[in-house]
Amino acid sequence: PLLIRFAGNLSNISVFPQTDSIPPTIPVYSALPQATQENSLEISGYAEAKSQVVVVKNGSENTRVQANDKGEFSLNVGLDDGENKIALYSIDEANNESSLSKEYMVKSDVTGPELAWELPEDQKTVRNLREQSIEVKGKVNESAKVTLNDRQLSVSNDNSFTTQFRLENGENKLKIKVIDLAGNEIEEERSIFFKP
Predict the structure, then answer these.
(1) Element (H, E) at 99
(2) Using omega within 30 degrees of 0 as the cis cutoff, is the peptide bond preceding 17 cis?
(3) Per 3-state DSSP, what percentage of the chain is helix, strand, and coil (rounded to 5)?
(4) Which stretches of 47-194 are assigned E, i.e. beta strand?
(5) Contact by Cβ (8 Å): 160, 129
(6) Is 157 exposed, middle or buried (0-12, 13-18, 19+ CB in 10 A)?
(7) How many CA atoms lie within 13 A of 34 on its CB side?
(8) Cβ atoms within 10 A of the Cβ of 185, count?
């Protein structure tokens, strides 16, 4: 056993209060979407218990909320039209600040995509058997998912697309659907007639 001897007067010992100088942890929350149709965004996650969670939007403090006793927080951030840079940090009860979290770029987009459908022309009639497979060609104004009759098409870096479509005898309905990153969508339909 270890025996410690203390000699001296206990009244000469000074006790200094300890101050909290350790910053809180960075708030943890799910990855934010690239785009949304909404003009606000709900963010929830975890931070140090009872710390203030601060949202920084486009370089300025936007809103703050206090985490509960378990460290849980939930808050709503208003979004500007277009791009919004969003990050979080926390401040503990001793006013220590955490580092800034990863910054996310969230686009608030309430406008549907635009489609420029070049080929084929609506109401076109094809009579030659060698032209039974026709080119479908067009372009969208933004990054988007494009489908032709529910089949996804490959879209190039300049947002254009091209594919072949095999015609059946009679009327062929071609429906192009475009869905942007925020979920806005448009549809356009054309009829092509194959009468060899």
Answers:
(1) none
(2) no
(3) 5, 50, 45
(4) 52-57, 60-66, 72-78, 82-91, 104-108, 115-119, 124-126, 133-140, 144-148, 151-152, 160-166, 170-180, 185-194
(5) no
(6) exposed
(7) 6
(8) 14
Give tens-digit pLDDT for 134-159.
Answer: 999 999 998 899 999 999 999 999 99
Q: Identify the residue whose tokens are 């809180």.
A: 24
- Bridge partners (DSSP) of residue 148 are 151, 176
Cα-based distances in Å from 37 to 56, 106, 180, 185: 21, 11, 10, 11
Largest CA distance in the chain: 113
Cα–Cα distance, 91 to 95 (Å, whole number): 6
pLDDT, tens digit (0-9, with 9 covering 90-100), for 62-91? 889 999 999 999 999 999 999 999 999 999
Pairing relationship of beta strands 124-126 and 185-194 according to DSSP bridges: parallel
Angle CA 96–57–100, to nearest 5: 35
